[in-house]
Design a protein that fits this description.
two-stranded antiparallel sheet; about 20% strand; globular; alpha+beta; single chain; about 35% helix
């Protein structure tokens, strides 16, 4: 509610406003766009996408990610806790490397998370979805 009354144009979004916008966008991007078109004061979709791009995803199990999942699940109703966890291995056909500016490292080599990186092209990736 305070965002609707107190947010001024050209001011940085507060952390609480940012978290609300990310939560709404996560639930339904189309509903988020609909709300903005109907006069609800929310950050532009391009800003939310930029915030999402700024999240640094790295190989392995990152404790902060797991803590966020734990927090989110603790707030869910019992019926909402039912989910599927999917593991899938994908083959990387096109071998290439590229520089990741935000992490300041070269991607495309084998990366085993806490076990280290190896100077061989990555051939497979394990993807976990929930």
């Amino acid at each position: 509610m305070t965002m609707q009354v107190l947010h001024k144009n050209r001011r940085p979004w507060k952390k609480t406003e940012k978290n609300l916008a990310l939560s709404l966008y996560y639930k339904s991007p189309s509903a988020y766009i609909y709300m903005r078109k109907n006069g609800i004061i929310l950050p532009p979709e391009s800003t939310v996408r930029r915030w999402l791009r700024s999240i640094l995803y790295v190989p392995g199990f990152v404790k902060e990610y797991l803590n966020q999942i734990k927090l989110k699940v603790s707030l869910m109703k019992e019926s909402d806790k039912k989910c599927s966890v999917l593991f899938d291995e994908v083959a990387i056909i096109m071998k290439h490397i590229e520089y990741n500016k935000s992490l300041d490292l070269i991607e495309g080599f084998e990366d085993m998370g806490v076990l280290g990186r190896f100077p061989k092209y990555a051939k497979h990736a394990l993807v976990i979805l929930w």
